[in-house]
Amino acid sequence: MCGIVGYVGGREAQNILTGGLRRLEYRGYDSAGIITIDDKGTASLQRAVGKVSELDAVVEKSKNSNHIGIGHTRWATHGIPSERNAHPHKAGDIYLVHNGIIENYKELKAELKNHEFASDTDTEVLAALIDSLYDKDTELFDAVAQALKLVTGTYGIAVVSTRQPEQIVVARSGSPLIIGVGDGETIIASDASALIGHTTKAIYLNDGEMAICTADNVELRDLAAQPLSAKVETIEVDMQAIQKQGYDHFLLKEIMEQPTTLRSTLSGRILLDQKQVRLGGLNMTADELRDIEHITIVGCGTAYYAGMLASYYLEKLVDGLTVDVVIASEFRYRSFHLPKNTVALVVSQSGETADTLACLREIKQRGVRTLGIINAVGSTIAREVDGGIYVHAGPEISVASTKAFTSQVSAMIMFGVQVAQAKGAGIEVTSKYVEELARLPEEIEKVLTNKKDEAKAVAEKYAEYDHALYLGRDTGFPTALEGALKLKEISYVHADGYPTGELKHGTLALVDDRFFEVFLVLDDWLFDKSISGLSEVNARGGHILAITNSKKEVDAETVVRIETDLEVLAPLVINVFQQLFAYHIAVAKGNNVDQPRNLAKSVTVE
Ligand code: F6R
């Protein structure tokens, strides 16, 4: 989604801003722009539709050596992707970049009669509002603070003024902003990846906080101008982790690195000899863990499916536990009641997803304990939960989530084992999970090595179909949902996941030559029932791609055998094949694999 960068210091701002925007490209965007200001207060604005490379071409024609500026990648919410809608937006002496949505922009716009609007954006309304309050005796900070008091919605903003060309004013409410503290320079970003290589010291702004940033100083205040103390933290992301390292796409790199990233998730947490799990960071006593009676899992998209798959394991692991899994965008508006002794698991790769964050806040208001299953260290959700498990999968750059899913499910299974232990479950219940988790990285490695070519060949065979049905039972069902999501988002092939047992209740009517059907046939106690569903589709001339970990006979147009002796965690191994399959279909179609159309990595607006 939209990205913000800002720079004030001794170096040339243009390069740093465009470099920062390139780092934010993975978030998804449709236009980009920068503004820099010289010491005399002359502004130089460049904007372009499309990629940062288009912006580079525009910047090249108006190079300058200004030392202060702000930049933005825009993912359209109000107004089509166009140069005039691209940020930064100007009003009077100020320029503004903004992530989020100003909900009352229509009402505000109606009042701002003196400003001639040049775009269709809510952001320009905020710029005009600030400008209307920025008379010649007013400090930029005060004008911004006054304006923000009149605004409803979400924002992360950076504002510069040609009248005060030595400072950037930033503010946050619902949209992340990080201030990188360098040596004689300050760098602002909506995402830590834009700071890497510049500084490892950063201040994470909280909601309701603002700052005046100059080259040598960061002054934190609240909206009432009261000074706040700033906590400078260390950023842990390294440069290697955000590079393709020889792969054609980040997506492929992230699929291939799962054995390593999963080892990081498990590291120090699996006590194989004791067949136990030890999680730090939950901030819960053994008694509190023992008393858990209900778990609600919240997430969006892949994080939701990770929760759904984990829920099957949690129910199996913890006797008497009830689990429900909810989609954040729905749950946040429901009149929900959570039973006593509930713990909510809030699942998010980015830790910034607006709906998931809103749910977290709703749940906390009801006095329910929240635990984060988060990848991005220092993200908003990670900071607001009562405790949790960082999944340590490293930066996920490709828009489609892959390695985070595997790590999220594994983290939640570890949590289930820990709860089971606290409730006195013997190792006869937990050991299978602990042993299989410990072996999961090498089993995934085997698929990646042995099935890489087969995934490509099978993908090429099915690349021309317009529709796909993904079918599975039990843990195979959420795995099928995730497989379908991966296919649709990167290949633009219509794909849906269903429980195999639902076929006869309507879905079977879809089977024809425009469809292929991916059956996940797990070698479990429901194997025969899975085969019955598959046979029903076969009997109707379906084009079946069966993916199975069984050695038993499976009659289908194409059968992919995943060789793993994992039993309970086989779906996670099978899912890796699904990831490769979707990747190769997207490549065969010539799509932008890492940045699929219309999508953004981190969905920070509703
Ligand atoms: C799918 C995908 C999205 C995200 C969803 C939640 O591949 O990437 O469905 O899973 O937007 O994002 P996070 O996990 O960052 O909250």
Primary descriptors:
single chain, 606 residues, alpha/beta, six-stranded antiparallel β-sheet, binds fructose -6-phosphate
Write up what this structure looks like.
Helix content is 35%, strand content 22%. The protein contains 18 helices and 26 strands. The strands form five sheets. Strands 3-2-4-1-10-9-11-14 form an eight-stranded antiparallel β-sheet, covered by helices on one side. It has a six-stranded antiparallel β-sheet with strand order 5-6-7-8-12-13. A five-stranded parallel β-sheet has the order 18-17-19-20-21, sandwiched between helices. Strand 17 (294-299), helix 9 (301-317) and strand 18 (322-327) form a beta-alpha-beta unit. The site of fructose -6-phosphate has 15 residues, from helix 9 and helix 16.
